[in-house]
Write a sequence for this structure.
């Protein structure tokens, strides 16, 4: 009873409600919230602390950045929070303005990432240094995925199409989705050989992939999540695409503190923990079954982690 009363009290403030409404659309940093809300940073920080104390919001410190997001650890509080969000008037002028500013912030981030990918597509040296997987990573991916064969593989954020190539001998069909036209041009060139004509790529959004529910039995997300505003949504979309018994393989950096990756490579997140990936998979109807950590050959590079999740078989009613 007391925790519910505390949550309701925290929600009973217009500016805290604005924050909750924004976080319902995805995690944000304090500086981003400050920019959107046109409030001082100390004020926003205090509001976040109040919402955190009420178990409505949780904060994730990652290097010099701190992300805020709605907490799901307490189902009762999460239900109260969702009820408050649902009750907000959709046409409220202030909320509409906040949403518009949020879209602007996201567009700015997306442009920075697109500019980075465009530069990668025209610079093979940069591609090999940052974007293309190393041979040992590919070997670990093939080992963790198993022999297959896979009827239909989908590579989300396919980039150059390299991961489709890696599994070309194990997939009857394969499709890569990417939002960068420049990278897709590279991928189409790389996949133009006769032995790869069962692999295709197409332009698309990772959160709204143009395939039916359960269409794929193998989905990959290779070095993609750290660029995304909402990694959980990409994992949820992968879960939607998977048929019962299908597998999702995520390859990304383990949690690290290389702040310069944000400026040099347009990374939004500095890697991920097992707990974080496992929680997102669970929300997507998947169960984390295996992990593998690969130490880098370069002394200062962060380690890479592989996570394999499985979708359970549907049971008869």
């Amino acid at each position: 009873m007391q925790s519910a009363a505390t949550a309701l009290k925290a929600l009973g403030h217009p500016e805290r409600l604005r924050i909750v409404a924004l976080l319902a659309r995805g995690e944000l940093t304090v500086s981003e919230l400050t920019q959107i809300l046109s409030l001082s940073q100390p004020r926003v920080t205090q509001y976040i602390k109040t919402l955190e104390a009420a178990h409505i919001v949780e904060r994730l410190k990652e290097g010099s950045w701190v992300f805020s997001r709605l907490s799901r650890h307490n189902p009762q509080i999460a239900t109260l929070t969702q009820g408050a969000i649902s009750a907000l008037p959709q046409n409220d002028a202030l909320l509409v303005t906040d949403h518009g500013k949020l879209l602007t912030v996201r567009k700015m981030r997306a442009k920075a990432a697109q500019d980075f990918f465009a530069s990668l597509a025209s610079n093979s040296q940069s591609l090999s240094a940052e974007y293309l997987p190393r041979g040992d990573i590919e070997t670990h991916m093939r080992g963790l995925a198993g022999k297959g064969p896979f009827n239909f593989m989908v590579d989300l954020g396919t980039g150059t199409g390299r991961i489709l190539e890696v599994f070309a001998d194990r997939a009857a069909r394969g499709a890569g989705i990417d939002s960068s036209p420049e990278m897709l041009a590279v991928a189409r060139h790389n996949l133009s050989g006769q032995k790869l004509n069962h692999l295709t790529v197409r332009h698309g959004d990772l959160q709204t992939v143009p395939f039916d529910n359960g269409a794929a039995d193998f989905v990959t997300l290779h070095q993609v999540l750290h660029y995304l505003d909402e990694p959980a949504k990409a994992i949820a979309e992968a879960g939607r695409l998977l048929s019962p018994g299908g597998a999702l393989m995520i390859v990304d950096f383990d949690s690290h503190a290389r702040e310069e990756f944000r400026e040099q490579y347009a990374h939004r997140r500095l890697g991920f923990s097992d707990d974080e990936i496992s929680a997102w998979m669970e929300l997507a109807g998947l169960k984390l079954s295996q992990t593998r950590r690969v130490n880098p050959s370069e002394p200062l590079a962060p380690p890479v982690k592989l996570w394999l999740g499985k979708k359970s078989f549907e049971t008869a009613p």
